[in-house]
UniProtKB/TrEMBL annotation:
Residues 20-199 form the GyrI-like small molecule binding domain. It holds the Pfam family GyrI-like. Gene3D superfamilies: Regulatory factor, effector binding domain. InterPro entries: GyrI-like, GyrI-like_CCH_Lin2189-like, Reg_factor_effector_dom_sf. This is GyrI-like small molecule binding domain-containing protein. It comes from Enterococcus caccae ATCC BAA-1240.
Length: 206
């Protein structure tokens, strides 16, 4: 039976359009860190590198054999942790996408080890050249205690959902532990109109 995150991990990936608290455990990811406007070409190339590496793991049975513990699964969605540069915060600049600092990532199944992840990076880099292949890292990240909510609409309108989340945190005596936040992209922006895009927004709290 194929493991599908949309069905088996609804709490993490399919929240309702109202704030909810949850605890997110340690998860394994391929990641790339960067800065600047996500609408530029370079961001698309970074995303492509992450997907290539992720499908390299997914297709292991067809490329030399399945590792111990392998199971059929659906590749996870693109995610990102976003914040602003230290300079932009210190100078209290007006929001500018050029000041964004991010770590984008795609979650990997638990059976993936450091050794397998490294071997896959080398193999895929040879098959699918991308200037960002050398920047892909394999990391374990734990979000811990969080508040999250589904945002429906344009990325530029996310502030409206953040306002609802901020009010929820205030009412429930929750404090954000960092200015950064996580986004999980449930819709392909190449295929879905801005007003119909679904994005999970997540605060890290205590």
């Amino acid at each position: 039976m194929k493991f599908e995150w949309r069905k088996q991990e609804k709490e993490l990936y399919l929240p309702k359009n109202k704030p909810a608290e949850l605890t997110v455990p340690k998860q394994k990811f391929y990641t790339i860190s960067g800065k600047g406007d996500p609408n530029r070409k370079a961001f698309g190339e970074e995303t492509a590198a992450l997907y290539a590496m992720s499908y390299g793991i997914r297709m292991m049975p067809k490329n030399g054999g399945a590792p111990d513990g392998y199971f059929e699964y659906t590749v996870y969605p693109l995610e990102g942790i976003w914040t602003l540069s230290d300079e932009a915060v210190a100078e209290r600049r007006k929001f500018d996408k050029a000041d964004l600092v991010y770590k984008i990532m795609i979650r990997q199944p638990d059976f993936l080890t450091e050794e397998l992840a490294s071997a896959n990076l080398e193999r895929v880099a040879q098959k699918k050249p991308n200037p960002n292949n050398q920047n892909v890292k394999f990391e374990t990240i734990e979000d811990g205690q969080c508040v999250q909510m589904l945002h429906l609409g344009s990325y530029d309108d996310e502030y409206k959902t953040f306002e609802v989340m901020a009010q929820y945190c205030k009412e429930h005596q929750l404090n954000r532990t960092t200015f950064a936040h996580r986004e999980i992209y449930l819709s392909d922006p190449r295929k879905v109109a801005p007003e119909k895009r679904k994005t999970v927004l997540r605060y890290f709290v205590e």
